[in-house]
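Teaching soon. Got one?

===
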Amino acid sequence: MRTALAQATDRLAAAGVPSPRVDAIALAEHALGVPQLILALPPSVPEGFEAVLEPLVRRREAREPLQHILGRAAFRYLSLLAAPGVFLPRPETEVVTQEAVDEANRLLTAGREALVVDLCTGSGAIALSVAMEVPGSRVVAVDVDPAAVTLTRVNAAALLDGADSDSDGLRTVRIELGDVSDPGLLADLADTVDILISNPPYIPDDAVPLDREVAEHDPPHALFGGGQNGLDVPRHVMLAAVRLLRQGGLFVMEHADLQGAAVRKLVDRTNAFSSATTHQDLTGRDRFVVARRRAT
């Protein structure tokens, strides 16, 4: 087992995989069908193990995302189904999600049910995390891509089927197909939403993602935000927030690390929010904007 892991690690490192040892272990766990390898006491290698591991390592060498190979993506406290063609959740977005979780918990403590809207939901990572972690919340998830909407519904159903997922919040998650540029989107919720959160596409149209996993496997419509600065879709998200948030409602939106000032300026130009602030991810990079809907 140690020899197989060492060889897989060396191959992945040579292929430029950022975390070769971690990925090699994950692939070995997948090949063995075990949730975790205890390397101090590795299991005996079953017959045919190398034949199962080899194609998995080869796929990762080709920089296919680990989540696609495993069929699952870890996000906060969830294990979500992952599928080619749908944006994969990233660790940075876990910090963004925390902002919505904290606000929903604050409202719950104050005796209020939080109404949370997640625009550009992708696989449902943000929406389902809020629903799971704050069971007293009502969550609405929206995406323009039918494949993303389908996967979010599958993930919600799978979490409900889990042994520890009898969350009332999950049972009431509303998942819809919709375009953030549509001025009639979620018209029934106008001026009632407590938290609007989004991880929209925001890469400029002429930019090329550095990671092969992103450039070759994430769908372009989930990456490129439109326009020279990539902020066309985020601008529509802001306008939706203006329509949907109640007075005092919280707006949270992820952006690229170099877009902080531009996004703050766009939010402030709406004249609908208190002064926008930029928040950092765990690496200290500007990652998301936060603002409150002011009284009209």
Q: What stands out?
A: The mean pLDDT is 93. The longest helix spans residues 91-109.
